[in-house]
Design goal:
By secondary structure, the chain is of the alpha/beta class. It folds into 3 domains: about 160 residues, NAD(P)-binding Rossmann-like Domain (Rossmann fold, 3-Layer(aba) Sandwich); about 160 residues, 2-Layer Sandwich (Dihydrodipicolinate Reductase, domain 2), CATH 3.30.360; about 80 residues, ACT domain (Alpha-Beta Plaits, 2-Layer Sandwich). Helices cover about 35% and strands about 25% of the residues. Strands 7, 8, 9, 10, 11, 12, 14, 15, 16 and 18 form a 10-stranded mixed sheet that branches. A 6-stranded parallel sheet has the order 3-2-1-4-5-6, sandwiched between helices. A two-stranded antiparallel ribbon has the order 13-17. A hairpin with a 3-residue loop joins strand 11 and strand 12. Helix 3 packs parallel to helix 4 and helix 4 runs parallel beside helix 9. The radius of gyration is 24 Å and the shape is elongated. The termini are far apart.
Length: about 425
Amino acid sequence: MDTINIGLIGFGNIGTGLVNALNQNSALIAERLGVELHLTRIADADTKRKRDAEYDPAILTNDANALLDDPNIQVVVELVGGLEPARTFVEKALRNGKHVVTANKAMLATFGGELWQLAREQGVALLYEASVGGGIPIIRALETGLSANGIKKIYGILNGTCNYILSHMQQDGRAFETVLAEAQAHGFAEPDPTYDVEGYDTAHKTAILASLAFQQDVRFSDVFVEGISRLKPVDLENARQLGYTVKLLGIARRDDADGRVEVRVHPTLLPQKNMLANVNGVFNAILVEGDLVGQTLFYGRGAGQLPTSSAILSDVMSIAADIARGVKATTDDRLRVKVGEKNLRPVSELETSYYLRVSVEDRPGAMAKISGVLASHGVSINSMLQSGERREGKAADVIIVTHRTREAELQAALQEIAATDVAKDKPFVLRVEEDL
């Protein structure tokens, strides 16, 4: 077979990038594969808008089913995004015996278990390198390069928008809202940034990584999620003085004793010497620890037209290479995820140290009441400082760093503190990660 026919569903930003990447490197890809990749049909709801790419307008249709039912198309690339109709398109493609490549992290984090199973049943491939980390080859690394390892933990900076905001808040001392507006002006943040800044994008990616690394059916709904919108410049400055940097991390860890997996996303205090603490701007990085290899770090651009297209094309080329050799292209099953099988550790059982910012009425006895509540719940104070000028009768931010304690006990203490007559606002919490 001299040509592999591809159908593309979704001709937005990433779809345009994919067409440009194919145009740019088609000769290189054909040389390495021994076959040509031919974009046979594109389906998109909007057939009128001119894209910034060279393509034959005759192959563009608003009927995705025409593409999915075309017997000449062997590989379908799904770039619609979201849950529906993306899931319906992918299911139909798989049932029609077509291989599927997708960048859709939300769909995989919600329905991945069933879709991977369907691909196995149909004897076709469902590949998703671009769903996590943009151009960073983390999925294939877990499936192949690190597949001899028992994975112990994964820590990821998985959202460039959040990393840009936190980096500039740290460097410039500016407020979240100011840096967010700048990120939007530069095109690094969406007009509605909720999906990114509240941690949902990172949670989708963390669920996918956890599913693959630990071979458990981890879904988005299983991930504990907190975003970065409540962070203030004072938190990042206090963290710096304490020897930490704040990053939004996706964390997946497996307990060797009982096999339980914890999956969580939240802004985290990292020691400044840690490799992840020094990843700045829009860049992503993923630290993976295996029992044989130890720690490895994957770094690069986690988004953008061409980096994401690089990952999509790597999947298409993998499928095409198998077809060209006469080998049945399927999803790699070395790290199979079984639908419904999971053994998760609730975040209430997390044990770590904590950074607390408590807005307290500045009057005699106020801090004694706060520390008394913490002590009554078994929360031990490691260090404490007051942020800002003291003015009796006014609210003052008190910063507390605890010794290691359980999340459940800390949350119970914070709930009680919030109900006291000296606390002026809900206490703000950051978790500390020392054991990377």
